[in-house]
Automatic annotation (TrEMBL), chains A, B:
CDD domains: TPP_PDC_IPDC, TPP_PYR_PDC_IPDC_like. One of its GO terms (molecular function) is thiamine pyrophosphate binding. Its cofactor is Mg(2+); thiamine diphosphate. It comes from Suhomyces tanzawaensis NRRL Y-17324. It comes from the Eukaryota. Residues 210-335 form the Thiamine pyrophosphate enzyme central domain. GO terms for cellular component: cytosol; nucleus. PROSITE patterns: TPP_ENZYMES. Residues 410-551 form the Thiamine pyrophosphate enzyme TPP-binding domain. GO terms for biological process: aromatic amino acid family catabolic process to alcohol via Ehrlich pathway; positive regulation of thiamine biosynthetic process; positive regulation of transcription by RNA polymerase II. This is Pyruvate decarboxylase. Belongs to the TPP enzyme family. Mg(2+) binds at residues 456, 483, 485. It catalyses: pyruvate + H(+) = acetaldehyde + CO2.
Length: 576, 576
């Protein structure tokens, strides 16, 4: 009645409440025997990536989509790399998950314990006998790390790494020596599922928070609820929605909260997307004139705030975060958002606190732009036009650059899931994330469409993950915005500089070159507004039954208005 | 009479004795203004890569080729990335350069000093206000790091980072804030070229070393000189060759020393490639039966030694290293190889020490294999056949896997430069390194051919750098060995496992898809021994006047004999 330690790891990952169905990564000789164990777990499959950076991006995208679908404690994903070479290639992707609060487990197959003790000059080492150096590097960008040392303590190390990744929605690191894969573990351990609940808040501290929050609400005339990324990542959107529905306070979202679960852009109290000075003027006014700001899961990075241009008129700001609460200037460490919101909603005094409130008018839908009169597609029009093509439940992945800024001007349908790496902003991310995203979506509901928008520049960094989509016959839409180079960089600096140029590719041949099979793929090119209109009204095209790559031809310096403004702010900040 | 600090950096890199002609990297908003300065330096150009990992590989390949060409203190290259996202993507490549002793400078454009002081939540940060975390990560895999803080101390920081990279042949890290690019520096500083000489050895210690070395030589009947990678990296091959020519001692090389400058496989005293138990029996016997082993620049990793299977019969081993010397069991820290070899050769007692020596017979050339009788190309034959096609001065880049093992069985022509990442062994490396290598070769002597051998599996990790070759119209040969997946992994473990499969690509379309222009490229496919013979006797093909991709079809489990044996040793080590 025992199983191997390797299998234990994958059973834990697959078992509820974790519920992972696919593991990402790249094989390497220190992880091969570990990978054998994936197949032993019913319902778990291996999704090999073309390289490790893409594997990390894919795990990130998978985790985000899972948390967008499921009503659970948060997202989770796993990737497996090999010692040294493999794990270091993944670091940028892991750091992105750390910055943006994405739960995932980075499993690294490492040399056997005896090779480490003898300090052998193995391949994939620095040649100095130091086997701890890579773990030290990962420690800078992970919540915690664990090193499996033997069969006896291994399961505890594994459980801790999974739990910490989940609860904190951050990556964790697990080193698994090749020789310990077949150590035996009692099967019984699996009977006790992992407890993934966040720890309860300190009673006394939470009571003080509730008292002050209720008081501020009871005095406010026109509060605004501002929803940001961590509200979704830390599983507090249900509470946020209940807060909105019961109080009828108006609410705005940040760019990073677009497409968060339970947070609709169709709700009668929805006020728009707030990005400081880059907001639509009415939205800016609505947020900044409020006399109480209730902020949920804020992540106040430059690109998420119009270069820190928030400008509330009130000092009455309540910030709920994943692991602390702030009321005006008072901080309450350890008072976690999800728990304290639940307590607030359940508080007998809650209903009374807002009974005086008269729901104020909300901003009229600002998502519109005129169709260009000439033959050229503009980004300003493209993103607003897109609203009409999207449908309920779509998963929309946008690359840093014109796409992540443009999409702010698109109205998301009900239950949309939005994925964009606004804070970390690593170009190329979206391609790997879209692969992970479509794997997750196809596991949960193959009818939901996954739609990627990536520029021709960013695409070049991670192009090989398109091959993974072809290999897995993923029904996905890859929109390549061809504007002949790094447009976001050109806007910031060096409009005509050679370093912002890229090699022109024949995008129409990519799927075929990667071995896509007749009938399973479609490559399209769209150059005029009319062609785009036709495409978006084509019923065949709307059905996600193929791997599709659609190239959209755009002008070199064309960009959505908000990106043009952001670029000016960024250029100024760099020289300051 | 002043120049900008940004320009100062690039002038230093371009100026002799450093002599860099091309800078690699990827633009990002924190490095754009810095990149402007490259164009201001006469003779220096920007070679943008498709992603940062490839940029690091390219810099590594460039540095190796330069050191193979030039009679200077060692190789050097520079790459520029952007803060956080860019630099982390490059880490695996930087670590490889660290492990394998390759001199390069990693320049990172970082946010302005004021943004750092205010701990702003900028994009490309972890969102925690910590701007030092990435530098800490790089510190684990670099010789030293520098942070430019102001215009006054900036030039010293820059000079130190260049010098340390050069002298130690290791990567160094330089953080350059965006707002300091235009700080002014006295032009005069450039008049004093950098001193890149290694520090002199301690006199007393060196004298003791010489005394003991001369004594061991004078007593030896049949010494062997064993040349390894660090002999080339640390610029001691001239001394090594003089040692061989004057003493007429026989010499062997390791896999990592194949294609080292000045070290010919055509020399009358050349004995073969020594890889422990994986050596040809005659070579093994010749090395191991010697009564004095003079080892130059050893890097005793598993793949370089047949899994640590060296087995000398003598205890008389002298090891010269870049920064210490070891004689039998005595270590002499700080006694650097290049200096001590020079002193040995100049020692008045040197000639006397070996006058008793009677040159022993050397091993007959073992490079041969029979042409397969059927229609299938075997690796065993391919690599030996290749010897006849190579010509003087070729630069041969081989990927970890069947190529890096197979190439040991190829006879290198005079002045060949061999590039392979045997210790670090990151798959995909060879593609980026070949791009850097061909850029260096075209700078120095466009007649010299650059020839890449990469497997279809490894190619997928870094395919986009083929696009950089197309973009730069590099005249290169890319041989893609198509054996349908990760053959080296299959040999170690999981012969039929799904995780060792890859997506099949249409390799013949790659150059065209990446936008290669009619007449500037050629895509070929070779499936039989006859076709390969024809190709290798085609005079047009032999001329490096195009970007060429040649797919060679091979059997899934076919591999050179030495790799089959190595894989068995590796599998055993992993389970032990």
């Amino acid at each position: 009645m025992s199983i191997s330690l390797g299998r234990y790891l994958f059973e834990r990952i697959h078992q509820q409440p974790v519920g992972v169905g696919s593991v990402f990564g790249v094989p390497g000789d220190f992880n091969l025997t570990l990978l054998d164990k994936i197949d032993e777990v019913d319902g778990l499959s291996w999704k090999g990536n073309a390289n490790e950076l893409n594997a990390a991006y894919a795990a990130d995208g998978y985790s985000r989509v899972k948390s967008g679908f499921t009503d659970g404690p948060g997202g989770f994903a796993a990737l497996v790399t090999t010692f040294g070479v493999g794990e270091l290639s993944a670091l940028n992707g892991i750091a992105g998950a750390y910055a943006e609060h994405v739960g995932l487990l980075h499993i690294v197959g490492v040399p056997s314990i005896s090779a480490q003790q003898k300090q052998l000059l193995l391949h994939h080492t620095l040649g100095n006998g130091d086997f701890t150096v890579f773990q030290k590097m990962s420690a800078q960008i992970t919540q915690t790390s664990g090193f499996v040392k033997d069969g006896e303590t291994g399961p505890d190390v594994i459980d801790r790494c999974i739990r910490e990744a989940f609860i904190n929605q951050r990556p964790t690191y697990l080193a698994f020596p090749a020789n310990l894969v077949d150590e035996q573990v009692p099967l019984e351990r699996l009977k006790q599922p992992l407890d993934l609940k966040v720890p309860p808040n300190d009673k006394e501290s939470e009571e003080e928070v509730l008292e002050r929050v209720l008081e501020l609400i009871s005095k406010a005339k026109d509060p605004i609820i501002l929803i940001d990324a961590c509200c979704a990542r830390h599983d507090a959107t249900k509470e946020a929605k209940e807060l909105i529905d019961r109080t009828e306070f108006k609410y705005a979202i940040t760019p990073m909260a677009k497409g968060a679960r339970d947070i609709s852009e169709d709700h009668p109290r929805f006020t728009g997307v707030y990005v400081g000075t880059l907001s639509y003027p009415d939205v800016k006014e609505a947020v900044e004139s409020s006399d109480l700001v209730i902020s949920l899961g804020a992540m106040l990075s430059d690109f998420n705030t119009g270069s820190f241009s928030y400008s509330y008129q009130t000092k009455n700001v309540i910030e709920f975060h994943s692991d602390y609460t702030k009321i005006r200037q008072a901080q309450y460490p350890g008072i976690r958002m999800k728990n304290v919101l639940r307590s607030l909603l359940d508080d007998p005094k809650f209903e009374d606190s807002f009974k005086h409130y008269q729901p104020s008018a909300v901003v009229k839908n600002p998502y519109k732009a005129e169709e260009p009169k000439n033959e050229i597609i503009t980004q300003q029009w493209l993103w607003s036009k897109l609203s009409s093509w999207l449908r309920e439940g779509d998963v929309i992945v946008t690359e840093t650059g014109t796409s992540s800024f443009g999409i702010i001007q698109t109205k998301y349908p009900k239950n949309a899931i939005g994925i964009s790496q606004v804070l970390w902003g690593s170009i190329g991310y979206s391609v790997g994330a879209a692969f992970g995203g479509v794997v997750a979506a196809e596991e949960l509901d193959p009818n939901r469409r996954v739609i990627l928008f990536v520029g021709d520049g960013s695409l070049q960094l991670t192009i090989q993950e398109i091959s993974s989509m072809v290999r897995n016959k993923n029904n996905i839409y890859v929109f390549v915005l061809n504007n002949d180079g790094y447009t976001i960089e050109r806007l910031i600096h060096g409009e005509t500089a050679e370093y912002n140029d890229i090699q022109s590719w024949k995008h129409g041949q990519i799927l075929d070159t990667f071995g896509a099979k007749e009938g399973e793929f479609e490559s399209l090119k769209v150059s005029t507004p009319k062609e785009l209109n036709n495409l978006f009204s084509d019923k065949q095209f709307a059905k996600n039954d193929k791997t599709r790559l659609i190239e959209i031809m755009l002008e070199k310096m064309d960009a959505p208005d908000n990106l043009v403004k952001q670029a000016q702010l960024s250029a100024k900040a760099n020289s300051g």
